[in-house]
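User: Please look over both lines:
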Amino acid sequence: MARLLQAPPKFHPSEWDIANKMQCASTESQKSRSERMIAESRRLLDEIEKTTQKTQSDANKKIEQRREEVKFWKQELDNKLEQIVHETEVLLTFKTRLEKSLESCKEPLIIAQKCLLNRQRRAGIDLVHDEVEQELVKEAEVLQGVIALLGRTLEQTNEQIRLNRSAIYNLEMDLKDKFTALMIDDYCASLTNNTPDIRYDDNAVKIEGNFVSPEDWIDFSNINVEKADKQRNNSLALRALIDGILSQTANDMRKQCEMVNVAFINRVKEVKDAKHKLETLLAMVMDETASQEKNIAALKKAITDKEGPAKVAQTRLEARSHRPNVELCYDTVQYKLISEVQEITKNIQRQLKDTLAQAETELKGLNRRQLSLEEEIQVKENTLYIDEVLCMQMRESVYINNF
């Protein structure tokens, strides 16, 4: 109990004096350090504020530069998109021209083939491999060649349209991304330190694996622009080619069509001339036949007319053969009667009948010639019907258009 109530130890006045001095020194030191810290903090705050403002200003400038860069490429892509879209639309009209031209070739080819088939029905000597047939065969070959060429060109055009549309798709996707990026950067440019919806994001500085370098970014759009330019140039070249093909094929078909038509006109004229000559010959043969028939009738009448004199002479001879005895004399009368009978018989047998036989032979020849001419005229009429009526009238519907 006595220990608990023991008084605390007492310090020496010198110790008290030292303690006071130490408190003063410590306080002055602490104050000095605090003042230095305050000064350093102010300097640091000012430096950091300036740095932050400068950095934020630089970031704003970079954002603005990026926006301008995106706008530039967006404009470039827009221009290329507008160009290739227009080019594709024009190429589609060329595709329609090709399709119409290809379709228009079918009817002339069918008509040419029908003409060749119809002309197989020509008869006799008229079934000839003439100039018309040669030109028709050539026309069919020209049309088949044109159809094949237009078909290949149409396939090439479809492929070019597909490539154009692929380039359009790439440009549109790139533009869509550029538009989104521009909207985001516009939003970023609008942000200030006082914007209400700014916030911390722990993952903001994390770089994802799908980030691309600025060079790759430029290359991507540049490749899309170059592809669009390439396909547009290819499309322009193809359109020039199509124009040339359509013009040349139309000229070739029109020229060959005219060649066939001229050949038909010439051939019809030749056949008509031949038919006219045959009809003239037929008329001549028929006239000759009538003359020969009259001649035969005259010959027959002459033979009949000689029967009376022959009978008279022979009756006289027979009667004079009954003269009696010495009166049965071979006198001048007898001699003349025998001569008359012989002369009449000779004229009838050797001249009139032989001439009649020859005349009848000639008449048969004339009849055969008449039949042959009539058959040949029918052949020519059949040829004219095939060429002038069936073929030429059918060809009137053939018209070669420029598409």
